[in-house]
Design goal:
This protein is α/β, with parallel strands linked by helices and 348 residues long. Helix content is 31%, strand content 17%. It has a 6-stranded parallel β-sheet, sandwiched between helices. Strands 9-8-7-10-11-12 form a 6-stranded parallel β-sheet, with helices on both faces. The longest helix has 17 residues. This is Glycosyltransferase family 9 protein. One of its GO terms (molecular function) is ADP-heptose-lipopolysaccharide heptosyltransferase activity.
Length: 348
């Protein structure tokens, strides 16, 4: 494949693979997806995503077709691949991976039969190249360098990490796409927007990974401060967060409205009209940032320099020692009040 990628034309078919089920990782991939869309405007682009994240891409203009796959079921993937993927064979397949490598997704890339198959060198993950890449790309880091060992094995004295959206863009550039496009990174459904409340403050105390959860009493203290300043504060609870709202409500000793288990498009509409979102390092934090909602992520062991959401109005608060317990309510409030005082950050 040439450095500029395939020749753009109406007959060009491109497959983009991001079938893992982490919502935040998918949204960090959107700048690269959009970059490829803008480079190959006339191509037919098919985006492969996990079932859990389909709501984050269905209805978005960055692909012509969405195919939902479940890469956790390897035998189901194998049967689908051996039967052949529907539609004409693509000219180009791009396998987006960041810190994790999905063997079943890699096999889908191989079985696509694409003439050009592009992804990060599997050796970086200490894996065999199951995608049979025609262009393995070196995993990037700061200042154009490359990582030589997987992220979990980096020492504390290693170079600062490259943001994951830039990691994904390295693959887009490898196929001839350009720089990161401007927001928006998620366009809410206008019909859902019409029913979303305005200027609410959403606090999300949960996280699928329990070690990503800021203590309940800290969230309660933050809620108390915001309610005392006259803001309309709502709790947010997802399917993996059971018990978190009960814990923060008990600490707060006050009842606030709760949004539970809403679908991605409905949440996105809420966030697009919200005054503020505050949450742990989770998928909803990335969704809020992608809509343009003023957002604050609270971090401990994960580094926001690498994992903060993409968006114009995102702030990060992290304990200096990398511990969530070291973040005080005042630290978050000091980040929140300037955002609440600004004009709307959301992009149209």
């Amino acid at each position: 494949m040439s450095a500029a990628g395939p020749t753009p034309s109406a007959s060009t078919r491109i497959h983009l693979y991001r079938p893992q089920n982490q919502l935040g990782d998918l949204l960090l991939n959107v700048p690269a997806i959009r970059s490829i869309r803008e480079r190959f405007r006339d191509a037919h682009i098919v985006l492969f995503v996990g079932r859990q994240n389909a709501g984050a891409v269905l209805g978005q203009p960055w692909a012509d077709e969405i195919r939902v796959v479940d890469t956790r079921n390897f035998f189901g993937v194998a049967r689908a691949g051996l039967r052949g993927l529907p539609g004409p064979r693509p000219h180009l397949a791009v396998y987006f991976t960041t810190v994790s490598y999905s063997r079943s997704a890699a096999m889908l890339v191989r079985w696509s039969g694409a003439r050009d198959r592009v992804g990060f060198d599997a050796a970086w993950y200490r894996e065999r190249d199951r995608a049979d890449l025609t262009l393995p790309v070196a995993y990037p880091r700061v200042a154009g360098g490359t990582e030589t060992c997987p992220a979990p094995n980096r020492g504390t004295g290693a170079a600062p990490p490259l943001h994951q959206s830039e990691v994904n863009l390295a693959l887009a550039r490898a196929v001839g796409a350009g720089a990161a496009p401007e927001p928006p990174y998620y366009i809410p459904d206008p019909a859902l927007l019409a029913h979303a409340p305005e200027n609410a403050v959403y606090l999300h105390p949960g996280a699928g990974k329990h070690h990503n959860r800021w203590p309940a009493d800290r969230f309660a203290a933050l809620a108390r401060e915001l309610v005392g300043r006259g803001y309309s504060v709502w709790w947010l609870e997802g399917p993996q967060d059971q018990g978190t709202v009960e814990a923060v409500s008990s600490a707060l000793r006050m009842t606030l409205p709760v949004v539970r288990n809403e679908a991605i498009p409905t949440l996105a509409a809420r966030f697009a009209r919200a005054a503020l979102y505050v949450g742990n390092d989770t998928g909803p934090l990335h969704l809020a940032g992608a809509t343009g909602c003023p957002s604050i992520g609270i971090y401990g062991w994960t580094d926001p320099a690498e994992w903060r959401p993409v968006g114009r109005c995102v702030r990060s608060v992290r304990g200096a020692d990398g511990r969530l317990e070291s973040v005080e309510p005042r630290d978050v409030l000091d980040a929140a009040l300037p955002l609440l005082a600004e004009d709307r950050c959301a992009v149209g």
